[in-house]
Amino acid sequence: MIIIGLTGQTGAGKSTVAKILCEYGCVHIDADIIAKTVIQSSETVLNSLKNEFGADIFKNGSLDRKALAKKAFSSLKNTQKLNAVTHPAVNKAVEKIIQSQKEKGTKAVIIDAIALFESGEDKLCDFTVAVVAPRQVRFDRITKRDNITARQANERIDAQKDESFYTENCTYTVRNYGEFSLEKELEPIIARLS
Predict the structure, then answer these.
(1) 135 within 8 A of 157, measured Cβ to Cβ
(2) Contact (Cβ atoms closer than 8 angstroms) between residue 152 and residue 111
(3) Which domains, from first to last, does the chain contain?
(4) Which residue spans within 36-115 are E strands per DSSP?
(5) Of the candidates 11, 17, 14, 69, which has an alpha carbon nearest to the alpha carbon of residue 190?
(6) In the chain, N or C terminus with fewer CB closer than 10 Å?
(7) Could you tell me the strand order of the sheet in which 108-112 lies?
(8) pLDDT at 124 over 80
(9) What's the rounded Cα separation, in Å, for the pair 78 and 167?
């Protein structure tokens, strides 16, 4: 089974790329969705988040995701704190899914993760793909998608690594600029799935 690592900054279009690759037989593992599930269901993770970011990230006994995001994405240091708490639990869940897909005889899986390298999930992959897009395009996408303010969007973008980090560390780079055909950009990756 081929394991593809898919990464890039927020709003670059990783989900769109994953959707196209799924048409070629891949199974999409979205680390963000897994993280949400793991965070909500793990008492250990919730307690660690409370210790790192304070009790005010909880409302009526439940995690307030917006309050956590506001604190976690306010600086690179805080984003690293969030990752240190969540990555081990997310990685364990991802590895279980990969094993399950192997047992099913799945042709290929995509691990879709902004923090693919920081979490160590890249070590599970046969090759990696960076999806890149200009800052303004990403800004427009995440303010609309996540219904957040311009300030919040800029904080999220600024708390991430530069585009060069992704392009220098990945096997392939896919430019999702709008003027390029994503299918054309994905040809070398699709060829490896044949």
Answers:
(1) yes
(2) no
(3) 2-193 (3.40.50.300)
(4) 58-59, 62-63, 108-112
(5) 17
(6) C
(7) 26-30, 108-112, 2-7, 127-132, 172-175
(8) yes
(9) 24
